[in-house]
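Notebook entry, structure prediction.
Reason for the run: the old model in the group folder had no record of what sequence produced it. Starting over properly, with the input documented here first.
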Amino acid sequence: MRILFHERTSEHEITVYDAPQLAGERGSFRVLQFAENAMQGAMDLDNPERIVFEYPKAMIHLMQCNNPSYANVYLIGHGIGTIARSCPGIRFTTAELDSNIVRLSKELFGCRDDDVRIGDGRAILEEQAAHAFDYVLLDAFTAKGTPKHLTSRSFFELTAAKLMEGGAVILNMMGKGGQDTVTAAVHSTLQTVFAYTRVFSLPSSSMSELRNIIIIGSERPIRFQESKMVGFVPIVLDQGYIIEDH
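New structure, fully documented this time:
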């Protein structure tokens, strides 16, 4: 492993490194990572246009499947710009808390996403026009989880107000599937705002192992093709508590 950047900023401890192996796959990879191995993005240096992780592929499929003509997306959490880069022709408005992430994504990952606002994703979303977006995507997590103010009932009510008719909010989280009380709470809170919700998880060898969880909420029935969910499968969560701002 070759360290290209390591610094503790006001928001995160950030490391960028090159590695000859990632998740058991040999090759040439560049990774952006927060503390406690919380990977925020990875690039295959031999094939930079390839999407390395499964969850962006699954989120993109959900957008395409539920609205093939979607055009405007609000994204919280920039990472290395994978999702926006992989959706040519789509207008992304991206919110990123840490300006260092945006700088590194451009300098070390070749990101060309220009419409990035620096600041809290919820505060910036509040400034957007009503019914402006086909999708609101949340991809903002650390080893401590997704910030609570981005999973509360009030936040989901805000996303509903910013979505066009038939739009959806899609969250990528780290959780433990059906055994995770926080994931269950996020889903139950989402259900108080949206008529239709679905939850998808990557399989895991252990119930206690953290894995990517995708949660989607919409006012319309949610469509997907399991063969295009790149390993994510539908799961059912227990009823959880409702997350409030205070």
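Summary: The chain is about 20% helix and 35% strand.
The old model has been moved to the deprecated folder.
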